Every structure is written in C-alpha cells, then in structure tokens.
Amino acid sequence: MNVIDQALLDITSLKIQGATNVALKVLTTLEALIQQTPDISTTSLQDIGKQLANARPNEPLAQNAIRYIFSNPTNNILAKIQEFRTLIETGEELIPENGKQFILENGTYLTLCHSSTTVALFQKAHETDTKFRLFVSETRPRFQGRITAKEVLEIGLSDVTMVIDSVAISLLENKTEHIDAVFIGADLLTDTGFVNKVGSLAVAAAGNRNNIPVYSLSTLLKFDPRSFDPTMIEKRSVQEIWEEAPEKLKFFSPAFDFVPYFPNVRIICEEGIIKGENVKDAVQKHFPFVLEIKNPA
Fold it and tell me: pLDDT tens, 184-205?
C-alpha cells in the first residue's frame, strides 16, 4: 500500500484520532511524498493534501493546513509545512497554560471523548501539585474516553472515575456529585458554536441549565469561516454501533454535535479565555489567512 492510501486508511478508519493528530498525519505524508518523489508538482501535492484533509469533513485544522501551505505556491513547501507544524505546537503549549488556572485544589471536573490538549491541561495542573477529581465519560461507540482515562492515570492523576455516557448528564443534572466545570476539546470552531464529539451538546446544555462552566480547549486554527449547516456533521458506519444488527434496522449515527455558544461556554485558545462571540475576532488577530478562505479546501 502506498503512503497516500495508507494515510487515507489510517484517517478514515480512526486509527488516527483527534484533529491535531489528523493534521500532523497530513503534514508528515506530504513530507514523505516530497522525499520519495522530489520532482512531484506543487499541483499534485496540493490535490493529495486536499484529499487527505477532507477524508473526514469535520477536520478544519487539516484543511486550514493545506490552505496555509499552498497559499503561495512559489514558497518552499517543506518550509511551509514546518511553519504550520510550529503553529500547532505553539498552541499545544500555550492553550493548557492559559487554562490551568481553572483547575482548583479539591475541584471535581468532567471530561468526555479524548482531546490531547485537554489531557495536557490536566497534566499542567497536576505538575503544580493541585489535587482534583476527574470524571471521564466512556464516549460510545468508539470509547475514546478510555484513551483519556489511561493517559491521565499515566501522568499521575490518582482520583479518576469512568462513567457511562448517560451518567455524565446525571452528574450535571442530579447533583449526585458536585461538578465544578467541564473541560472538552473541539474539532471545529465557527462564529456561532463549535463541533465536538457527539454527547457534547447534552453536556454543555446540562451545564448551562445548572450554571456549570464548560471550557472548550481549541486552537483558533480549527476555525471554519463557513456558516454551519447540519449536513456538515460526519456520519459514521453503523458497524461501530452494532456489528450484527437485525436486518432492516435503521441507524442514525452522527459522530459529532454542534454546540452553540451557551452563556456558560468559554473557549480556551491562543488568545486566552474568550466568549464564543469573540472567536472570529481572535482568529482575525492571530490567523487572518483562515478568514480569507471563501470555499472549503
């Protein structure tokens, strides 16, 4: 299998998960192609980049990477790839640092799915010897929450509890535990809301009803300037839900939720901690090239 087909398979099969990891895979694949075929044309590289970046539609970080790299074809492509990688790495360092102030001594927090930036936030807080409890939602049907649980235990958190997805809402609504805040990632930002793993909408709405802050950690490079439309949400294979389902049984299997910027929602990003209404202005300040895009990559 060639490097392009392998990358596509890894992305679409979810062997590679998370917006950051998908974007980095696209970058490393382009680098490998340039090394293997030094005379490959810029047009061919761009077409391959678009194919990889759009393999999963809710990954604007990868799509914005391709727009950035090929915005000026006369530039050195390898240098542009490294520049974008540096932008990602800078955000990965800065965003957890901006957010660690919200992890308080003896606090109790909820997270769902898996976000490398959110795990980095918990690690930053742990490194300051802050003691806190963490509830981790399993995140069906792919159980990405188990990845989060393993990682936070590996970094040294000692009070980690796994809950099934429905219990996450009960924690917020029924006060069975006092949840001080919710920390989640984002796969896509817009000027009216953000997209994250399905289940995020229910958690954010329950938090809003109960005056519990919801913090979404995301680089502004995930901003999509298009107006959100429900058809943009990726649908996953029914096999992920029930491999031997009865014939004629129908499934509705969106992989993500669109979460409006409820009053309790804040975005932790390169700008700091901001309201959703200020996301577009922050993108204009830090990464204006994103807003110059009129059409998808």
Answer: 999 999 999 999 999 999 999 9
Is the CATH code 3.40.50.10470 the one for domain 95-292?
Answer: yes
Q: What confidence score (pLDDT) does residue 294 get?
A: 53
For the chain, report the end-to-end CA distance as a whole number of angstroms.
Answer: 25
Phi, psi of 56 (to 5 degrees): -125, 120
Q: In the beta sheet, which residues pair with residue 132?
A: 107
Using CA atoms, how far residue 206 sits from 94, 152, 210, 244, in Å, is: 29, 24, 6, 33
Q: Label residues 50-76 b or e (16+ Cβ within 10 Å = b).
A: bebbebbbbbbbbbbbbbbbbeeeeee
Query: For residues 121 and 127, what is the distance between their CA atoms, to the nearest angstrom?
Result: 10
Query: Of 259, 261, 263, whose CA–CA distance to 280 is shortest?
Result: 261
Q: Encode pLDDT of 37-69 as tens digits.
A: 888 999 999 999 999 999 988 889 999 999 999
Check if the beta carbon of residue 229 is closer than 8 Å to that of residue 216.
no
The one-character DSSP state at 230 is G
Ranges of each domain in the chain: 3-93, 95-292
Cα–Cα separations (whole angstroms), residue 38 to 6, 35, 107: 20, 6, 54
Q: Which run of H or of E encompasses 82?
A: helix 77-99
Kindly list the distances between the CA atom of residue 176 and the CA atoms of 118, 158, 171, 226, 263, in Å, as whole numbers in the listed order. 24, 20, 5, 40, 23
Spatial distance between the Cα atoms of 214 and 171, rounded to a whole number of angstroms: 14
| Strands of the sheet with 160-163, listed across from one edge | 160-163, 132-137, 107-112, 181-184, 214-217, 265-269, 272-274
- Both structure tokens of 87: 């932008």
Q: How many angstroms separate the CA atoms of 77 and 92, rounded? A: 23
